[in-house]
């Protein structure tokens, strides 16, 4: 049986806060007279809970998920055993919330709601409404700010699309220009190759005519020294490599020793390859400088042409690899 305890008019009239123990109580059970009045009772009346307003205006502003604290007094009966408790129900709108009860506070875990909702507390058959909670979204931006940000984002996206379209069109024009230049270079190379073939054929004809004019003297060839100097150092008649070392006497021994040691390093393939690659990596190392260094190295290696050929094969292999990695036009390698 679930019975609702009646009020005590005397307690309500006096507004007593001390516990009140009735002299007798009983149950109305149809015609059962023996239970109408029971004098031996353990029933004790305690003062009703009293709730304070949520705020001075009656409206409490909250963020979603924030706890709701209901303040007041007489929330727990002051029993000797310390186990006294009341069954509270707190509704936020039409949704209940989880409660933690203390003597002067009810801690309510607010449900997932937004907007204005009435707070209603029920206990012992009576209801209390301490006010209204206004749960606002935790978004820091107003609708106007959101619309402005959305418009700015759309404008930025439009600008990016326009830039990409312009870049793509410019890239396409650059590609077409590059292809046009490449075709012109190919045509020019083809014409140069054809002219070289024709010139070589004419040269052969001229050589045959020249040899026929020579009375048994044969074709005049340059000696090896003169031919090599013209190939390695064109346009220089008296190169310093043909003359003796011109260094003051007190330094000549040191310079000769240094040149001898450097010559030994030149004969080391690992050093020579590293030396050449380091020079080529310098931005200020021009094509003329490369030709001069190559000519000087070949002059040193005249007596070791097999070793020089092996070094050239390594350098040529590196050049081919670089052209393949950079995906340059194959004819650039031949140039």
TrEMBL record:
Q: InterPro entries from the entry?
A: Ig_E-set (IPR014756), IPT_dom (IPR002909), Plexin (IPR031148), Plexin_cytoplasmic_RasGAP_dom (IPR013548), Rho_GTPase_activation_prot (IPR008936)
Q: Which UniProt keywords apply?
A: Coiled coil, Membrane, Transmembrane, Transmembrane helix
Kindly provide the name given to this protein in its UniProt entry: Plexin-A4
User: In this protein, which residues make up the domain named IPT/TIG?
Assistant: 65-126
The protein's organism comes out as: Ilyodon furcidens (goldbreast splitfin)
Q: Which residues cross the membrane?
A: 145-167
SUPFAM superfamilies, per database record: E set domains (SSF81296), GTPase activation domain, GAP (SSF48350)
Q: Name one Pfam family in it.
A: Plexin_cytopl
Q: Which residues form the Plexin cytoplasmic RasGAP domain?
A: 218-335
Q: Which PANTHER family match?
A: PLEXIN, PLEXIN-A4
* Coiled-coil boundaries: 171-198
Cross-referenced Gene3D superfamilies: GTPase Activation - p120gap, domain 1 (1.10.506.10)
Keyword Lyase annotated: no
